[in-house]
Write a structure and sequence with these properties.
mainly alpha, Four Helix Bundle (Hemerythrin (Met), subunit A), two-stranded antiparallel sheet
Length: 263
């Protein structure tokens, strides 16, 4: 007797044979793999109590996530495989890793509601990525719908980086737990966040612009823990603030399937 579903498997294998010349684009996939590795490494470092290094691994994962989409578009190597692989890597690097980081750093001594906040962060991030992949419609490249998962992970990682090395009191633990409950819903909200995609980085600009950028980097380097926290937290609250100022508008879908973007 033929097993159920064998015909479906045969069709899938036939499709793979028919499309065997469509290989995987190596460079974008390697960058996504680097993103995934950094997220996994951040979990290992958090388990060992090396929280500063874990935060750094998450920030490096953000750079990898930013580069893989840019490289894929420059090479005209965007594909549905790349979209799905990127989302799976983001679940580890920007959902599971930050949640475990803050749990190991501060929430493990609190009650059930605290660690459930860490799980809420994971599930909201996964839902945000799933919604990003399935929605279609007119693309407004200027804005994201909902806080991006790297942005939310940046809030968590910069908070831990700011407090690392200091005695973590119970009040600080409660604040971090409350922060997880606040940041997680922002990822599945309809608030609109500036995507920075309308900035023409290759355009010629006055020398003063370069000086301002260099000065900004130097200022951040003097106290990177504080400035990273202010940067990511300011970006996270920019969505609700924009909604209060501009008012609620019908937000277009974030992207069409097949386009690798920051999620």
């Amino acid at each position: 007797m033929r097993r159920p579903g064998r015909g479906g498997r045969r069709r899938r294998w036939q499709e793979l044979r028919d499309n065997r010349n469509r290989g995987i684009f190596l460079l974008p996939s390697l960058l996504t793999t680097g993103n995934l590795f950094c997220g996994f490494f951040a979990i290992l470092l958090s388990a060992r109590g090396r929280f500063e290094e874990a935060c750094l691994a998450i920030f490096v994962a953000m750079v990898m996530d930013l580069l893989d989409g840019r490289v894929a578009r420059l090479m005209k190597a965007t594909s549905q495989f790349g979209v799905e692989f990127d989302s799976l890597a983001d679940v580890v690097s920007f959902c599971a890793a930050p949640a475990f980081l803050v749990y190991a750093f501060a929430l493990h001594d609190l009650g059930r509601s605290a660690w459930f906040g860490a799980f809420l962060f994971v599930i909201c991030g996964a839902l945000r990525l799933a919604r990003f992949n399935v929605q279609t419609g007119t693309v407004d490249r200027r804005y994201f719908v909902g806080l991006s998962t790297p942005g939310a992970a940046g809030v968590v990682a910069s908070s831990v980086l700011l407090l690392d090395g200091e005695p973590v009191t119970r009040n600080m633990r409660v604040v971090l737990a409350a922060g997880m409950w606040v940041v997680a819903p922002l990822m599945v909200s309809t608030f609109r966040y500036w995507s920075f995609k309308d900035v023409e980085w290759a355009r010629r600009r006055p020398v003063q612009t370069l000086l301002v950028v260099v000065l900004g980097v130097m200022v951040v380097a003097t106290n990177h823990e504080l400035f990273l926290f202010l940067l990511f937290t300011g970006y996270a609250v920019s969505g609700p603030i924009r909604w209060l100022i501009v008012g609620r508008t019908v937000a277009p879908a974030p992207a069409e399937p097949g386009a690798r973007e920051v999620t």
